[in-house]
Protein 1
Amino acid sequence: MHIKSKIYNKTLYVLLCGELDEHSATHARLTLDKLFSGSEFNQIIIDLSELEFMDSTGIGVLIGRYKKMRSRQIPIFICNPSKHAEKIFRMTGLYEIMPKIV
Amino acid sequence: MKNSNFMEVTFKALSINESFARLCVAGFCVQLNPSLDEIGDIKTAVSEAVTNCVVHAYPKRNGTITLRCEIEGDVVKIVVKDQGIGIKDIEKAREPFYTTKPSEERSGMGFSVMESFMDKVEVEHNGDKGLVVTMYKQITSNSMQVSNAS
């Protein structure tokens, strides 16, 4: 998996590419934590349009990042989930803490 | 004549083998002409079952995972088996959000995802060693029928 990012209008845009599973989770956690540690943004949008696969390990990764950003009061939004990612998000109630945006 | 086929592979319980496992099953199931949605459901469920083995089964040693896929008619049966430490309370482990490793950012949704994406999921002890997860899914779409008819 690889992660692309850019900051525009005080928003950190993160594009997750490839597969997010147990094998790639550590890399994803470390990379996201490094990106999220910046201070030039006041919200984060995670774009999943290029995420080819995700299982429930991805939920753990996202909730972990949410917990870290909550203390800084920086909201995280999700956009462009695949049908399968959407199903997992709805099952787990993830959208209650990371709302989906279009 | 009713389809009948199987394949079985054994591999090390390493996270790098998760993508191998799901692609292996997906490739085998192609003979039933499933839809992309059905293949996605199967890949996700296989990934959850294999991840459980990788994360929980062998805390102190290297172990193996055996993945078997059977086709009977239009039903796919997938068996994921390990010889690890097993789970004492299987019913508890199947509850949504239950995890023995909350500090590792585990969601505890593995079995719930398997149950949601497959038609039926059975979890049993593998004798006195490890766990056997058996999952079933009927392939209903048969995506090739459309192109065959045209």
Protein 2
Amino acid sequence: MSDPGRRFSGLLLALAAALVAAAASLAVGTRTVPLDEVVRAFTDYAATDDHIVVRDLRLPRMWLGIAVGAALAVSGALVQTLTRNPLAEPGILGVTAGASFAILLATALWQADAQAAQLVAAAVGALAATAVVYAVGGSSPLRLVLAGVALSAVLGGLGLGIRLALPDVFDDYRFWSVGSLAGRDQVPLELPLLVIAVGLAAALLLVPPLDAMLLGDEVAHTQGTRVARTRTITLVVLTVLAAAATAIAGPILFVGLIVPHLVRRLTAGSVGWLLAYCVVLGPVLILVSDVVARLLLPTGEVPVAVVTAFVGGPVLIWVVRRYGAVDP
Amino acid sequence: MRSVLGQPGGPRLVVGCVGIVVTGLLVAFVTLMHGATWSTPGETLAGLLGHGEQTFVITRWRAPQVSAALVFGAALGLSGAVFQNLTRNPLGSPDIIGLEASAFTGALVVTACLSGTAAQVATGSVVAGLAAAVVVYALARKGGFSGMRLVVIGIAVNAMVTATNQWLVIRADLEVAMATTAWSAGSLNGTDWHDVRLPFALIAALAVGLALSARTMHQAALGDDLATTSGVRLGPHRLALVVLGVGCTATVTAVAGPISFVALAAPQIGRRITGSAGVPLLPAALTGALLLAASDLLAQTLTRPVPLPVGMITTAVGGAYLIWLLVMEVRKR
């Protein structure tokens, strides 16, 4: 089961899936572009309509999907590892709700539509939500889920109120507020992508101490791991990753739950492998969901979060049934 | 009293219920006074009794919405109490475990496909709500029945169904979508007598059915073994309760959209006010009426002159209440 060869070939398979998903996200849409034309858009650019669609509209969206998927999946893997709670996920725990509410609030109060300001607001909101949910939920896995659901409800209601009260300010947020990759093509991507890249790199550095902590805090401590510090840094990293993903794509739930559980058996006992798979398969999930979202409504856009919620529901049910009665 | 509540009613129960009713009527009266300009209490009272110049405004425009808030709130409270008793868990209420969202799916589908009448929409939402109840229950029973597992599975079903609803609303034409956006947030704004006649009759019938099965429900809530030894046939009894409970939630949802968290909060608040041991029905219904009437007053006055959908208020307030509930539970340990 824990054969490194199997893990390696599995990862190659996952990479192949990522390539297929990326190609599909470039080719499929209202205007279907044949694959050879997609390739030619990069090798032999001729500014035809197809080429423009692929390079100017779909390519940024693909990068966006990859970044958001990797960030959310790694964030979910980190929070599950940290809390040893199979149900933990930034969306379920209210972290993304905190981030999106903070962005709405900042925009309403200070017209903060600069990207850096939104990222900061998202991070602050996500951290605050994490703190509240953990203060309320304590150590019980199920109570954490409930606290997250409750906080998401409160923030969702207040956010909807803000949007209804100031419809002009939030016209652009119609798609963002339900979690979507649509309508973000014109937004510069450098800063959020950079934040996510830094977050992913930081997650890599956390692998050895987290691996040690899998054996228990005391064992890790005797091996020279600073447990408290690792916990804090992990919490910050996973929150920033979730916040950055939310800042560009809006609240998307369940990605951080689905992906780690798909590879849980294959990567059992190794945080490094878990994160590697998450970085590859998170984007696959988001890109495929985004392609499905485009197909579901050819004339317009179904937010990608609608698709991930629909896929994520069954996974949550499966996890709950598999791990039995997770009583408080 | 004993037969309705299924358990002995002490003086605190009576005092608590009277207190809730009086507060609820006060809130309703204040809501009746609210309009483009506030009416004085004297004018409102005169209007209610059928004389004075504001009679028309008060009895035709304001009264339907206020009575809808009271009756629908009571129905939601009843439905919440039923499911919290069935799942033996304060979180197992129809808005958390996805029944309300499913009822709304039924209403949306019927509206979109059949451009249905009120009766068709109500039927659609009841059928969809029952289907969701069956699915959640079937998924939750695996090697014994756990209330907590049912709640989290219900949350998952709720997420899927809510996603479907969003898709349906987005798919609808833009003009329809604008109307359904208020509806999908749960709203009582613009209710008139014509809208509420059928739901009121349905809810009255369901309430009578629930009052008749209340005693058995409380026996069953004590545990399967005890209930069986005291002669309760659990299968048919549970089925009847599920149908009645879903009926309450779905009837409200078909007219007003999904109004979340009243069903969650009302039974628990009512239980605490009246100091009851189980989750009794009457305090739940009365508290539900009070909660929804108060939320509707807030929704109408917070952003005057534009009214908010009441579901937004109940979501925010009810979510805060749920957090408080969890905090208290942690403190107790």
